[in-house]
Amino acid sequence: TMNWKTFHRLDVINKFLNTLEYEYPSTCSVYNIATTAEGRQVKLIKISNGIVGNYGVWLDAGIHAREWIGPAVCTYVIDQIVRNYQTLPSYFKNKDWYIVPVLNPDGYEYSHTTDRMWRKNRSTHFGVPGCGVDLNRNFSLGWAPDKNQPTHANYRGPHPFSEAESIAVRDMLSSGIPFSVYISMHSFGQLIMFPYSHTRQICKNYVYLLEGSTYMSKAIYEATGMQYKVGISKDVLYGAAGTSADWAHGRGRVPYCYTIELRSYEHKFDLPEDQVKISLIYTESQKGSLSK
Ligand code: 0X9
Ligand code: ZN
């Protein structure tokens, strides 16, 4: 059963979603939005009060297989929203939440069973079985003609949207739902990044995106003492082409698009399980020192 003391396998996460839908049928619906190369379902939970005209908020995690803290945080967010729904402020309730805790289930399972540091999905291209595609390079905006060997960890795929998982994101974001927010959770680095990653061009909503990331960073700091840097990927991390957040903003026209790199530094992708849910007791002087 579900808790936030361990990294769960896909079947536990899917069962958690189905249980929420069963227990909270008036607010939760679970949908299959894609079938993967290995035949798994990508599951989306919609949380809504059913009011027509709500803006949509999209959250996804697990686009990269080994980044296990993403699905853990994402399921925690789902649990918090659903179980505290009645007491939430109206700006929170009057949204339609579309949350995909494990966008890359094949890769996620593979990183549990076979290769802890696996990043991509498990599709086959050019006769390389299970070579996989880096789903965060498979979106069409700025899709770059580099790193195009199927065996490369950042393989972008034979063409944009060659993968069921990225197609599902594209189609949901293009379906006419008025999404105001797109957030993709990754690890690691404690960064809140916004478009663009593939070009130096300043995106349309730059000032508001910067403001939003600053609010988030401040809220995280006040709640946990953890420091999250904010900025454009090229400045705080590196440039990347064909990412989901760039596409969501530039083509999907979602105003607030973020890629969040969760904790941490010293453990890299292998954050210890006792760090999934932290209950910190810290003093003002310890704040900040907790970031590393
Ligand atoms: O390389 C990536 O896809 C992301 N980093 S990770 O270590 N999680 O692989 C960063 C992507 C940065 N930019 C945007 N998604 N916009
Ligand atoms: Zn990632």
From TrEMBL:
Q: Which residues of the full protein are shown?
A: 131 to 422 of 422
GO BP terms: proteolysis
Active site as annotated: E261
Domain Peptidase M14, by residue range, is: 6-292
Q: Which GO terms describe its molecular function?
A: metallocarboxypeptidase activity; zinc ion binding
Please give the organism: Plutella xylostella (Diamondback moth)
Q: What is the lineage of its organism?
A: Eukaryota, Metazoa, Ecdysozoa, Arthropoda, Hexapoda
Q: Name one GO cellular component term.
A: extracellular space
* Zinc in keyword set: yes
Keywords, sorted A to Z: Carboxypeptidase, Hydrolase, Metal-binding, Metalloprotease, Protease, Signal, Zinc
Q: Which cofactor does it need?
A: Zn(2+)
Q: Which family does it belong to?
A: Belongs to the peptidase M14 family.
**Protein name, please?**
(diamondback moth) hypothetical protein
